[in-house]
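Narrative of activities, Objective 1.

The group set out to show that a structural description can be obtained from nothing but a protein's sequence at a throughput compatible with the screening campaign. Below is one input-output pair from the validation batch, recorded exactly as produced.
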Amino acid sequence: MDDIQLLASIEKYLAGEMPPAEYAIFDALRKKTPEIDQMVVEHKLFLHQMDSYVAYQNIKHSLHEAHSKLLETGDLNEGGEVSTKVQVVQLWNRYKRVTAIAASVGGIIALVMSGLVAYFSPAVNGNQIQQLSKDIEIIKRNQQYQGSLINEVKSKIPTGVKVISGGSGFLIDPKGFIITNAHVLKGTSAIVVDSKGKEYTAAIIHIDLKKDLAILKINDEDFKSLKSLPYSIQKQNADLGDEIFTLGYPRNDIVYGVGYLSSKTGFNGDSLSYQIQISANPGNSGGPVLNNNGEVIGVLSTRQAQADGVSFAVKSKNIYEFVDELKESDTSIEKLKLPTHSAIRGVQRKQQIIKVADCVFNVKAFTQK
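Output recorded for this entry:
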């Protein structure tokens, strides 16, 4: 399906003009393909912006007609001066509602026009926000760089499959349940690699594209469940200025980053995310963002390409909502318990990193060739 056909399908989908069978097929395709889902969201926003712009033009036309009528009746002269002070008061009482609407719409149209410019600009979809998953080319380069090591260690990636994406993930339960971003898992299966380079096979349990979260379960007999996790997962919103740190896999070995929380909302006011000031690279997606108390406050997901060090993280409270929703439909995870106590509170950062690193994994998603 080329871009024109896809756009036509999205138009029909949003307008409810698809036959039920076709709608069901397209809806399923949207749920399992993040790129198409993003196009649907962006096109819906574009249509909304166009409707707002039309509404603005209609109000502008009404104001012009009202102005012409005032000139005709003599309530307003060409210089804009009213005949008496009483007329000023009467005029304000009569038209203050229209004026308020015009002022509001003036602000809205500024946003709308910037949105329209952004929508038609080729920089938006490709450059403004960048997902921090690894694509196949980055994975290939890492494998070539580590060529000698790969030859020495037999990989658990099955033969005849293609690794297509990757990123980071971390344990949310000692029994092997791992959280990551939905956009990290573009394949049908995955393996995860710990900080010591040991690989484990993992099953994709569930993906939520709206929250950009996914859960994996290590189902490898070589994996030994931990007694407990060193960190907790915060249920409340974090505070502006909180110092934060993250661990992840922009390379094949684990990398530490440090920064602070710079906004309680994400890109364009996204309430599901935080804005954080931290350096992040492809491969950091899915990594934990922790505060000084050893509490996970978010899941690192994207960065703003044209702003140095501006990244975004899905808020940790969404993990609770995600798990609760999943428990209602999947009895196999009823015993999954998110950690609510941090054992590394008050511990020096170096020791915090050592403890957390054992729970952070390099995620590699693959599919059949």
